[in-house]
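Re: the multi-chain job from yesterday

Posting the exact lines I submitted so nobody has to dig through the queue logs.
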Amino acid sequence: MTTAPPQAAPPAVLPPAEIPVRARLPRWVLPAGGVVFAIALYVAFRNTALLPHDDDAPQFHWLNDVRDWIDENRNSSPVFIYVINYIRLFVGQIADLFTTALQGLGWPGLIGVAGGLGWLAGGWRIALLSVAGFGGVGALGLWEPSVDTLALTLTAVVLSLAFGIPLGVLTGRSARVRRVVTPVLDVMQIMPTFSYISPMVLLFLIGTPSAVIATVIYAMPPAVRITALAVQNVSKTALEASDSLGATRWQTLRKVQLPLAKNTILLGVNQTLLAALSMVPLTALIAAPGLGVDLLKALARVNVGLALVPGLAIVIMAIVLDRMTRAAAAGGRRRGPSRWAVGAVIAGAGIALTPALAADFPEDWQIPIVKPVNDVVEWIEFHWYGFTGFVNDSFANWILNPMETTLTTAPWWLVITTVVALAWSISGLRAALIAGGCLGGMALLGLWQHGMTTLTVVLVATLIAMFFGLLLGVVAARSTRFASALRPLLDAAQTMPTFSYLLPGLALFGPGRFTAIVASVIYTVPVVIRLVEDGIRGVPGETVEAALASGSTRGQLLWKVQLPMARRSLLVAANQGIVMTLAMVVIGALVGAGALGYDVYAGFAQREDYGKGLAAGVALVLLGIMLDRITQGADRRPRSRGLQSVP
Amino acid sequence: MRKLHLIAGVAILAVSVAACGGGAKVNDTGASAAPSAAAPSGGSAAPSAGGTVKLAVNPWVGYEADAAVISYLLQNELGYTVEKKELAEEPSWQGMESGDVDVILENWGHDDLKQKYIDDKGVAVALGPNGNKGVIGWYVPEWMATKYPDITDYKNLNKYADMFKTSESGGKGQLLDGDPSYVTNDEALVKNLKLNFKVVFGGSEDALIKAAKQATAQQKPLLMYFYEPQWLFSQLKLVKVNLPAYTKGCDADPKKIACDYPPYELDKIVSKKFQDSGGKAFELIKNFQWTNEDQNQVADDITNNGMSDEAAAKKWVDAHPDVWKAWLPQ
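And the result, structure tokens for all chains:
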């Protein structure tokens, strides 16, 4: 089957150099034979054993009935009136509390508090950054929605940590718990964000509570993973010492493990915070307030300038919160009483100013950026139209459509067999069985065709992202100057809310799959660059010198030494890349990228399509698990690194 | 793990004991009661005499025009704070139940949602027409109707399907739809009328408008879902394609529809809670009625004359005191 090579591509590029050459069959014979055989089967059986899409499938009706049942019993079933509705109330009240508190501080107060916290976390540099950052958010003219977004983010973070850190501690201390928790976290992180909004709404209705809970699902895994890692890594000697002094398990935890793990756990807080901040805007789709509302509106208007403003506000907040928590994690200087005093003075100064100054952020301080940006976009649209139209069409006609046709006209058993064989060769039997099961599940859900269409887009987008990521990552690893020029760009790119990535593509190429691909490439490339760069830089200096001394050219050094030795990082990059791409391609449904993402979106916008949307959400999770297992390759690793900006 | 469950259990128990023990129903959530005095997010600035109105704003500019004028009047004439909720149609209805939405100003039919939220659950109330007459249909640019006169009959669409092919339509003709959340039967229509077309979602009203402008200026073929009231019709002409005539009940099963869209009397929906305690704001919305022309004027100012919602609303309000004065509570 012709679709096999793309999946195999990342590892296939890098044959482990050290494997001794066997005398018998060359290594490529078996895979090549498999590919030829699959193609032959495809040609012979094309257009047989198809699973055509039916919008009216019984599975969808059944899910609609489930929805109707829940809707009817929301106010009578004990599960709802004693548990779920209380969770909704509880979460809603916490969010209200945060919103009221932050709004109540007023803008000078909030800037002051941010400055004070910045000072506590990392001295005057961070304090200055916090003041300037929050002031900048105000200058963008979006103070109020920014505070709403911040409040939702903090609510989600507090809840994530309240559950995540204890769970992380348990996970770190007990292998049994780890075995249960790890796969659950895996699934939580693989799930495309879009797919669990719908079930949230079913349980908790639209509004802030659903938004917060969806964000918690997205933001909690890094907290659990990093806490577990931190607790696990506390040195054995310290534990034994504590044991020999007769400390109880609880004492050991409180007096030894947690203090020693504190800084790493703070890194987990950092990751959780950034994850939450990038998820919260998306929840505007279900009536959560904040910057997401402005973003969605700009997206509907295809107005790049208008979307850039909330996008920037989020990036600024992300940078401030990131630096603040990271400085706190680094825990540089000790905090004497004077340190607290200075922080309190800064915060107090801001709060004291609140009654004195106007309640709304002053308009004369606001910087208009919408118009100049839109003028540029318009110019590009007008002058480049022929070119962008040509790129869009030829990409669709020569790459996307043929691939999609192949996948949708191949018999289902051939697709499943091929995927299973591929997964087996890359990641072993277990992964192969899981991948096969996921595909089977998609077929049973009645979403085979749409799944194949989404798969096409994901594969193409991942390949492109890997290509650029490898290229730029290699350059960055070789040139420190290039790397440091790239760094702020990567930082910004990784904290933009996911759907703002749709805009550049939308402006240039109009709605469609290509725009979704452009967006996911922009979204994914930074992470791939980072992992590739880290991987290549991680190759020991002696090895590089030895290679150079034995007369390797720079090209040989790269292909024969650095890339093969960075194999693990590259595999992780491929894996991360494919999972991130999936998440983004799905959001591409907002701009007409179709298939499963569209089903999900239509599911919460159109009553009769709810069942299909819910099924599509599950299908997306299955697709994600399948792609993840296939690319997981050689080894397991903590996923949270690389998901957000890594120091 | 066990400890965690225990903690969670205790927490839930504590909350449920604290809250009157009778179990929580979604409609009586105190936190989201409709017009609460001084919204937490309103800041301390505007002295809001009346409280807060949560106004759903659905994603098309005509609705934005409704919302602009009503918010302007609520704020400046009646002293209310308005919280605009940018939501798709169906989630707006859900907001009636969750307490996130008080008012929908321009509802397009949605008989199933009326059944559910008005008749069955009793959380919403229909307040009658807003005066706008809605039309939904399939349109081609004027030059196509002139060049191919028979294209306006759906029976001939297959003959021309090839012309409408695009990179996104998978070898069939493309029928361009808007936002996936809009009222649309197009996928069912294409299937049930056996048309060799594929519905492609542009994603928004602006995508549709852009396509219509391009198709007119560059004489490119285009078949698209579109609707009235719509300011664009004052700039260029689109011709409606005739689908099998609408008869009452022909659209009962959404997946089996094979007839045209009905004529819509766009109407206003408010939450039950807002009806009971909305005061003057409720009266204003109950009385609100204007014409397609009014709406198009405001929408045109917002879209094409670079005005903010508020400025466009003010312009219309200043010019039509006789119309809106009649909406004010007596």
